[in-house]
Write a structure and sequence with these properties.
The chain is mainly alpha-helical and about 100 residues long. The chain has four helices and no strands. α1 packs across α2 and α1 runs parallel beside α4.
Length: about 100
């Protein structure tokens, strides 16, 4: 549940940037690709947020749609800190 909650937090924060830019997302994957193209490649966001966003998206998908057991091998505290930095950066970019 913590992975799903953290993913949802990061996803909706990312959507704030899309809304600011007048973009409506069509898929969870596309949100990350838009951030990569418009923000990471232009030096406005750290690439690490994409790694976290993509990883959490994959774990969320696996936990919600798979019937198989799987292990989550992440440093949750590191992911949480990355997400906190992402929140602060998005605040700066949207003010």
């Amino acid at each position: 549940m913590s992975i799903i909650a953290l993913y949802n937090t990061v996803f909706h924060i990312a959507r704030a940037l899309l809304f600011k830019d007048g973009i409506k997302e069509k898929s969870h994957w596309a949100v990350a690709r838009y951030l990569e193209y418009e923000y990471v490649n232009k030096g406005k966001l750290d690439r690490k947020i994409l790694l976290v966003l993509d990883s959490l998206r994959d774990y969320r998908h696996e936990s919600q749609y798979s019937v198989n057991e799987f292990e989550i091998e992440i440093d949750f505290e590191d992911y949480l800190e990355t997400c906190k930095r992402f929140i602060e950066r998005v605040k700066q970019l949207t003010l």
